Known about the structure:
- This protein has 504 residues and is α/β, with parallel strands linked by helices.
- The chain has helices spanning 19-26, 40-43, 48-55, 66-72, 84-97, 99-117, 119-137, 141-145, 148-162, 168-185, 222-237, 255-263, 283-300, 314-317, 369-375, 382-394, 422-435, 444-452, 471-478, 495-498; strands at 32-34, 60-63, 76-79, 211-218, 243-246, 267-271, 304-306, 324-325, 347-349, 359-361, 397-402, 407-408, 419-420, 439-441, 482-483.
- Strands 4, 5, 6, 7, 8, 9, 10, 11, 14 and 15 form a ten-stranded mixed beta sheet that branches. Strands 1-2-3 form a three-stranded parallel beta sheet. A two-stranded parallel ribbon has the order 12-13.
- Helix 3 packs across helix 6 (99-117) and helix 7 (119-137) crosses helix 9.
- Residues 138-155 and 491-504 have low confidence and may be disordered.
Amino acid sequence: MVEEKDLSDMVNFTGRVSDEDLLEILSTADVCVNPDRPCEMNDISTMIKIMEYMALGKPIVQFDLREGRFSAQDASLYADTKNLVADFAEKILWLLENPDTSHRMGERGLRRVAQQLAWEYSVPNLLAAYEKAFNKSTGISSAVRAIPSRRTSISTELYYSVRPMIPRRLQLLMRQRRARSQHRKADRWPIWEAAGSQPPGWPGWPGGKRFAIVLTHDVESEAGVLRCKDLADLEEQYGVRSSFGFVPMRYQVPQKLRELLIDRGFEVMLHDLYHDGKLFRNWSAFKEQHEAINEALEKWGTRGFSSGAMHHNLRWIRELNIDYSISTYDVDPFEPQACGLGRIFPCWVESPDGGGRGFAEMPYTLPQDFTLYVLLGEQSNATWRKKLDWIAAKGGMVLLKTHPDYMVFPKESKRMDGYPVEFYADLLEYITTRYGDQAWFAQPSQVADYWRGLRLANEDNAITWRDTFCASCRQAHADGWLRQSPSHPAEPRASGALAMPRIV
């Protein structure tokens, strides 16, 4: 048909293309169309392309279908039902000839996606549909309502079930829009003064240091694995060592890389098992995976754990054979599990009856690089410096969690989900130049060893309750699991053994 109408130089049949190529092409379009003809099925369906067009801020032309009109509203023009094809073409031409109106329509579509149709607004509707179905078929809706914490796990599970089907570019566009909205509302970020209170009876850091600095990296993909050596080389230039967290069941973690890092004074920890958002969905799921996690910990010779996407249930994490966990934060409104320990010091997680081995929970206290540079689009490390200076003044723990996956090293091309590694290098320069003699540069395992030997003066040894706790942390606090320090502390190691190797 294209050849018959002599349109070969204007039409390209690509076949199937990647999500990245698809969105790159769509982003250059002036007008987007939905040519699905009216029928009963199309009338009750919103096509995926409509959501993609709106998320990219594009004006749309489509046939007048019930669901299509409901979804796009005034971001689209609708062909006259009495003159479908001719009017469809007329509306495309009209939008091309009126770019100002087209631009306004695209903006309205993007705003509707961000403010009304995004995932966070869809969850209540999906849950309501599930409950209605349960009510009709089993009559157990009242039982569902009696378990409010399950609603959070259902919505989380739904999200991580559909996320692989959402194009990466579209994921980022939606998350960026949501993060910037959250940023405008955040009154406790990046600094919450209440989080700066020192624990009762605080003796200070080893060697009389003013504050502690802990550098960690979560490696989320094979691309991140390939950058680990370059990242280690960079840190060695500034005389510091960090801890690398790998996901054992998501990609191959070369044994030679782990051995190389350890030989050079770096630390290796386990970063979740699959990093799929499902580890803490329920107790059964956790029990199925915790033995595999313990096997990986033993195989790698580490006793450190960092949970994926900062999902956590600290009582369950105690089932792991670990000395420390990095699965929480002091305050961060951008994380999927709304929580916050509200402190810039570690805490101790231990059974209230004193049985079993406890562990040090170490919240990250500097904002994550992905949040600052990919979601919020910052172009300097001013936020990092500001928060670091505040923590230093409070005598707390600077714990930074970055991702080599998102760092763009020299000679690499720019990426939509990347940021220049120079931002991190500048921070290292700032830390070592301004605070080199004042800070205790420590590995997470060293902080855990130190915390295990503490006995802080507090009548019930409980950490301060915060209204930012998630449901699981509130329950853990109420039951006496979250403590300032161990009930029966071990002998602390000599301060010399805690000194982190540094290059002069």
